[in-house]
Design brief:
The chain is mostly helical. It is built from 7 helices and 2 strands. The N and C termini lie far apart (167 Å).
Amino acid sequence: MRCGAEQEADRTAAVSLILEHLARARLVTIDEETIELAHEALITAWPRLRAWIEEDRGGILAHRRLTDAATVWDHHERDPGTLYRGTRLAVIREWAERAGHREELTPLERDFFGESIAAEERERAVAARRTRHLRYLVAGLALLLTLATAFGAMAVNQRHRALRSQEAALSRQLAAGFREGLACRSRSADPVLPVSAQARHSGTCEGSRPRGRFRCSRCG
């Protein structure tokens, strides 16, 4: 009984022989990393191949675009600006993870694919840090605004209290001045001594008046 390694070697040899015949017939072109269909007659004459292509037309198109993008990336000295991002990366990522398509990638395509994923992860990390910093900034500004509002309210309240105290003091001063003015006008209008003074004067005269015919010169 033959082992699995021998069977795999036989299949590889058979595939290589078929590809060699197809290349000689100029139906496919073979380079170091890829095999491309060179004539539509192969698709027409090979129903199974046509069915495979129809089943995975979207994946084939995505793979072809990946090949072109990886070539451009390599020609531009692997410029990070030419890497896949966003939707294009999501499409090729979904395709590569389905049915083992990742194994179909060439070394250049694998490098391009891996660098695209790494670049997107770095950009997401940077965006997450910026978002956290922005949240901290907003929270700090909100706290400062709350404190400023509280201190402003306290200042306004103290100002109102000071104004009320000044108004009360002014009212008391005005009332005292008004009462003093009334007292002065009352004394100016009535020359008679106050009752208390008259009483004291009368008491003095009565107490000092001698008995008999003498009278107090002050009382007449």
